[in-house]
Amino acid sequence: MNLPLNSWVYSAPEMVQPGWIGQRPYLTTPQGGKIVVDRYVLGLWHFANQRNLAQALSWADQQGLSREAAASALVCLVEAGLLSRRDGQIPPGVASEEKVQSPQVIENGELVSAVIVSYNSREWLPECFASLQSQTYSNLEIILVDNGSSDGSLEWVQEHYPQTRSIRISPTVSLARALNQGIRAAAGAYYLLLNPDVKLEPSVVTYMVAAARREARCAAIAAKLRFLWAPSFLNGLGNFVGAFSWGTDSALGHLDLGQFDDWRELPSACFAAALIPAAALRDIGLLDEGFPMYYEDSEWCYRARLLGYRVCAAPQAVVYHAFSGREPGEEHGGLKAQKLHHVVYGRLRFAIRLLNGATMARFLLSYGLEDLVNALAALLRRRWENAQAYAQAWRDLRKALPALQVERRLIQDQRQCSDQELFAPQRRLPPTLIWRGLPLLTWDSICQYYAPWLMAQRGQDYPEFGEWEMEPDALKHGASPRLLWRRLVEIQRAEGNLAALHRFAKIVQWKLMQP
To answer: I need a surface site. Which of 68, 140, 209, 398 has the fewest CB within 10 A?
Structure first.
């Protein structure tokens, strides 16, 4: 890869187009997604198109910006699929020869039971089932739990995959209850819990089973989730619950450059794609069916860790998740009333079941103040249903409190670690890089998160960090966190006043979330 800088030529894929959401620019992905950028990233993307690397780097000089940051931005744009890079010495259309090894099929592993809960998910099932059928791990059974669908999901599965075990539930029940029914019907040594709107790479089950066998006291293995509509960006590698705001996916919105592939232990696994050993589930217990939806996976995983188990990552197991649809919008009106009720109630139930003394009091006080402020804001905006959702969630908690106190005592009697140990794994997690549900790829995120990591990996085959003179100590300075005030000034310059205010609010929110 150590070719002259003028040998590498960039081009914008035909399906990648710029657009605007209000005052914020974005670039589309070939899969129909949107990546929010800023004026610097958009400017470099325009400038680099049909230019070579040496010319592209000269853009940084024109803007008075660091060449190291520009080189990192070019890598990110290529890795994100927003620019393509080719060796100008190779004629266009002539592919380089690469040997692709077919994954090894594992035939004699223990039975894995894939449990999928479907609610009007007919449009997602063909892709999900096809990816399960193509797994290199062959000892696999599939169980579909149809949770009161009216779109013919169950009939489609019975017609096209008659070997699938099907369970019909009517009327619709909580996700936790539906998952428990599927688990009870499963015969496997492992339960692979999946959302219907996922697509698995062929070796996912192989990697997850290997990780479960490798880890002692393993409660769950989390796959690496990427967005289906932006497959270079992370939907998350596990998830976590903080002392403020909603629980969220770990590394949500980050461009996946392999920077998290050394993660071994996680706070929690997202049950959109998680593997649970049957032996661990028998010891820990089933999911808590008192969660209407949301937080049931986090509660189960944190409970498992309270009991001395570990939740681990399988970063090589890549699963593509639709998240908010095949072509996500940029809705920003807040959560719908029913979902809002579920998440408000869910985090309260999580805190009361699992947390001890002062930690529980802090979480409940933080949640209560936040809910009060948000409910008053909803009233001022005349969003009556949202305000009512907050009140209803607290009323439901009061009704459930006697039973919750009994469950709490049973869990606390078996506790094997402190709250400090319980929350320790999430203190090293990076902030989310998301805006209105869309990933952010801005000059600030590149300089703050990607450039230090990329420059530390200079031995890797990135031509952008090839044979050109870097500034003295660029690696050392590039890896140093920048002062907050300086970051905000730079964000204001690149993204505008509202974006700088939004980022400052997110930084404060992130600090408040830490237990």
So the answer is: 398
CB atoms within 10 A of CB 335: 15
Residue type, 411: I
Give the side-chain half-sphere CA count within 13 A for 307: 20
Rounded distance between C-alpha atoms, residue 341 and residue 349, angstroms: 12
Q: Give the separation between CA 277 and CA 209, rounded to whole angstroms.
A: 9
Enumerate helices (H) and strands (E) in the chain, giving the number of each.
18, 18
CA distances from 99 to 102, 136, 175 (A): 10, 19, 43
Q: Which residues of 171-207 are buried (b: 16+ CB within 10 A; e: fewer)?
A: eebbbbbbbbbbbeebebbbbbbbbbbbbbbbbbbbb
Find the DSSP H helices in 333-483. Answer: 337-354, 357-380, 384-413, 419-423, 443-445, 451-456, 474-478
Contact 190, 276 (CB under 8 A): yes
First-to-last alpha carbon distance for the chain, in angstroms, is 45
Report strand pairing: 310-321 vs 218-227: parallel
Q: Which tokens go with 173?
A: 């029940």
Element (H, E) at 439: strand 438-439
Q: What angle do CA 291, 295, 300 make, to 5 degrees?
A: 90
Whole-angstrom distance, CA of residue 501 vs CA of residue 117: 40
Q: What is the pLDDT along the chain (515 residues), one digit of tens a residue?
A: 555 667 789 999 999 999 999 989 999 999 999 999 999 999 999 999 999 999 999 999 999 998 989 999 999 999 999 999 988 655 555 444 444 444 555 556 899 999 999 999 999 999 999 999 999 999 999 999 999 999 999 999 999 999 999 999 999 999 999 999 999 999 999 999 999 999 999 999 999 999 999 998 999 999 999 999 999 999 999 999 999 999 999 999 999 999 999 999 999 999 999 999 999 999 999 999 999 999 999 999 999 999 999 999 999 999 999 986 666 655 555 688 999 999 999 999 999 999 998 999 999 999 999 999 999 999 999 999 999 999 999 999 999 999 999 999 999 999 999 999 999 999 889 999 999 999 999 999 999 999 999 888 865 678 888 765 565 444 443 334 457 778 888 888 888 888 888 888 888 888 889 88
Is 502 in contact with 433 (CB distance < 8 Å)? no
Question: CA dist 418 to 104, 238, 359, 461, Å?
Answer: 42, 21, 10, 44
Domain ranges of the chain: 5-82+441-513, 112-321, 337-428
